[in-house]
Every structure is written in structure tokens, then in C-alpha cells.
Amino acid sequence: MFRPSETHRQRDIFGIEAQLSPEAGQRLRESKEYAFYKEVFCRIPEGLFADLYANAPASRPNAPVNVLVGAMILQHVNDWTFEELLDRVTFDLKVRAALGLWSLDDAAFCRATLFNFQKRLRDHMAATGQDKFQAVFDRLSEEQLKRFGLRSATQRCDSTQVGSNIRDYTRVELLVEVVLRMWRALGEADQEEHAERFGAYVEAKTSGQFLYRLRKSGIDQALEQLGELFAWMCEALEGGYGSTEIHRIVRRVFAEQFTRADEKIAVRPAKEIGSDSLQSPDDPDATFHKKEETEYHGFVLHVAETADPENGLQLITDVAVAPNNQADSSILRERLPEMHRKTPGLRELHTDAGYPSEDNDRLQAELGILAVQTAIRGRTAQAPIEIERDEAGFLHIRCAAGHRVPGQSTPMHYKAEFAAASCGGCPFAAVCLAQHRAHGGRTHYFTEADVLKQARHRRLETLPEERRTLRANVEATMKQFKAPCRNGKLRTRGLGAMSRYAFLRAIAINFGRIYRHLRRVSLSPGTSAPPPAAGDRREAAPYRPLASVKRIFRTTSTRSGGYVACLPETRKLAV
């Protein structure tokens, strides 16, 4: 049964803060953890997780969702392992304060509760396709933009490769590894019956040892033998093991690496194997991407953030995770409608050369978003023809020699006709993009996509100097996402784990920026932190402890030598 957690708002007068000295209490209230409690923990939308739990009144109440989610965000703020997280939640007073655990008697959660909660989230995502952490990030970021009055009309985006925590296999190693795992999944009777088929691979013990013993001249023969074995496993083991995960992997690898030709098993050429083929049996979601001679096995992370120079701080507004063989332009095409929905005022988007495309130009024009491209991909024409649309909608075309003509509309495209007098003796005739005509002139054909593309290329030049480098700072944001990665790899595997990491890390990065902003504001003379939005009462009032609990206990003694706390009836307790 789902039940929201509100007990942290009513604090115990004998809790953590009351037992600290005034100086220590002040340090606690000025700490980053206390700011996390106010800025993130108190604002976690617990109701989003209600459908993970049973509705039966007699069922046990859930563990506090805000404590579980808050703890996982703190894990990504500080790059803790699960073991470190559990220790901090149990023994660190500041971390307990960040999670609203104001008394040492308050139990947070046990290891099993945390992992069961993550399993519920994975199962829910597999069944519905909805990521709860994405919903939490969207809700928090939307509120933060409003609360701090940030302008979201200008944004910037970028992407980065994030590796899965898997081993980089060669082709032979991957095939042998799958064979060995299929062998380990067999029952004892089946292992005895088929020991001869698997013998050479089982004897090697590991895929690396098998490859180590293999001569270079024997690789082709080894691949052919593996193809025969995979074909046999797909058919002979279907009855007893067809529903197992490893047999599904066997069938997938056989389809990707081999083919049947005239009742024979043939090894596919390496160039026919797609980048979405299995990279490791430990992570079926990981894909392959090669960029600037560097190979990546994993996923791509896309991030958008505010970039208005007038903002006191910039916050992440959109996060997406995709297979790393997906182009930046296709990711942006999928995210643009959602980005516009979350920040309807978006009017200017700064990107690098990997994001623009013909489809994106059209979609951005429909949404009223101006695309600012900081670099141009591909070759630059030796004699470029400039196309420009004025405010009235008329097209004007100028060739490399400086001749201007109006654009004309045709049923299929546009065209610009240059007279023979203009083209005669032109020094750019040999490299001109316009087609030569019999009358001596030239005609240049173009489409609406060309008009939008050229407008995008010129837009950077039309901006003031100080706005031309707005995209550069997003590189620092990508480094913040990659900071906890070891050699560019996550500690975890799978698209679901990568998505959870991305959204929790984004919440953590936004909180860090807010905390530093509030510190700057509080330290600046004559300034103050922005007030909460109207009607926002979810944050608990700051706790103001009594003068001293120890002093109160000393006011009245008993004959047995103990102390009794005597509080005047007229005195109000601050909570």
C-alpha cells in the first residue's frame, strides 16, 4: 500500500539538531546536505510512484519513497557505491538530515528494500516504457525554472559517448563466451550427453584462453565450426531451454553472425554485421560506435540546458539516452517536440555540426525555434550561391561573382536564373553550382531545405559577439556527467541502468548549481535568495531549537540524582 512520507516535517525536539551545540547546529543548517533537504528532498513528487504498490488496504505500507529516491540522488551527487551509500545513510548525521531523518531512531531502509525498489522500477519500465526517474527530473526541473525565474528561450545541447561496463570482445571471443554460458546453463544430463560437442571450448575454460591457443591461420576454420555449433544449439536446445535468456542470446548471435546458404552455415563478412549486433552477453542493449578512430561499446547521452546570459544560473532541461549508433540529428528530432513542450518559450537552440538535418530544420521552423550551428560539417563550395528570404517572404539569390536575382517558384522546387551577360567571362564559371544553359546563362535549382540550411549557417554571424560562444559551456556539463565514469565506462550495464544514471545525475548537477548560486547570493552584500513560488509550502520551516536541552534538564533535580525537564506551559516549541 502506497503512503506518502510526511513525518520529516514534524521534527523531534530531542532529535539530531537539539543534541548539537548552537555552533554545530548552525554549521548543519549551512551545509550542502541541509540545502539538499530543502531544495530536493522536500520537493520529490512521491505520488509518481504510487502505482508501483498494491492498493489493498490490508497490505503493508511502503518504505518512504522520498528517502529511497533522495538517497539514490545523493549517491550520484557524491559518486558512492551502494555499500558507501548504506554506510552514509546509517552513520553520517548530515546525510541523515538530507533525507529528513532527524532522529537516530528513524530507520531509513535496508539493502533488500533498496534493491527491491529498483527492481520494481525496472519491471515497471519494461511493462510500460515509463521511466519514473525521468518524471522526477522533469517535475523538479520545471519547478526550479519557475522558482528561480530562469529564462529558457535560449538553450544549448550536446551529446557524449558513455561506455557500458562490459569487456571488449573480439569476434571469436564473443562467440566462444556465448557457447560457454550456454554450456553452464545445461543440466547435468545434457552436459554428459553433449560433452563432446562443447569439449574444445570447455577445455579452454575461458574465451580468452581459447583465442590465445588459436593460430591466426585457424581463425576461419574456428568460425565455421562455431557456426555449425550455433545452428545445432538453436534447434536441438530449443525444447528445453528456448525460454531462457541465454538461448535467446544464442539465437540472436546466430542470426547476426551467420547465414544459411544451400543448407550450409556460412560466416557473415565483418562488413555485414551491424553496429547494433550483440557486443557482450552481459549487456544486450549496448551497441557499437566508432568516432575518430576510437571505438565505443555502450550508449549516447544527450543533454540540453538553458543558456541565456541574463540567468543567474543555468539548469539542465532535457536528458535522453539512446543506443550509441544513433546519430545526434535523429536524437534531436525525437527530443524537439518534448523539449518544446517542457519549455514552450524555447526560441533559440545552439548546437554543433552533428545535430542539424533537413528534417530538423523543418521541425524547428514549425516550432518557431531558430537553430544556431557553431560549426559547418563537410566541404565549403568554391563558388557558393547565397539564398536569403526577406521579411516579406521573397527569395533573393546572389552568386559568387556578386550578381543578384530573385528566386522563382516551380511545382517541385525553386530556381534562380542568371542572364548570359552576367555569366559571360565569369572567373567562377568552372566551379559554379548553377547549371549552364544553351542561351549562355545559368540556372540554379534549390529547395526549401536549402533555404533553411543557409539561414542556419548565417545565423551565427548575425548574433552579437557575446552570444556566438554560448554553446561552449555545455562541454563542461558533459564532463560533469562523465566524471564518475572509469575510463569512460559506467559501473553498471544496460539501457535501463544508463537511463537511471543519466536522470539522477542530472538532478544532482542541477542541485549543485542551485546550491552554489544560493551561496553566492547569500554572500553578496545587499542581495537575498529568491523567494519560493507563490503557494509553495512543501518545504518544512527551518528548525529553531530551544536554547539548550541540556540546560532545561538541569532546571529541576530529584532526590535520586536525576533531572526532569520542566517547560513553561506558555512557551511555544519551534518546529
Number of domains: 5
**Main beta sheet: strand number and arrangement?**
6 strands, mixed
Shape summary: flat
Tell me the quaternary state: single chain
Please report the number of helical segments: 22
Radius of gyration: 32 Å
Structural class estimated from helices and strands: alpha+beta
The percent range for helix content is 40-55%
**Unreliable stretches, pLDDT < 50, 5 or more residues?**
532-575
Quote the distance from N terminus to C terminus: 29 Å
Mean pLDDT: 86
Q: Please give the number of β-strands.
A: 17
Strand residue percentage: 5-15%
Task: Describe the structure in your own words.
The chain is α+β, with helices and mostly antiparallel strands and 575 residues long. The chain has five domains: 7-130, no CATH class; 154-163 and 288-377 and 465-482, Ribonuclease H-like superfamily/Ribonuclease H (Nucleotidyltransferase, domain 5, 2-Layer Sandwich), CATH 3.30.420.10; 171-272, no CATH class; 386-457, no CATH class; 545-575, no CATH class. The chain starts with 15 loop residues before the first helix and ends in an 11-residue tail after the last strand. The protein contains 22 helices and 17 strands. Helix 4 crosses helix 21 and helix 17 (358-367) crosses helix 19 (448-462).
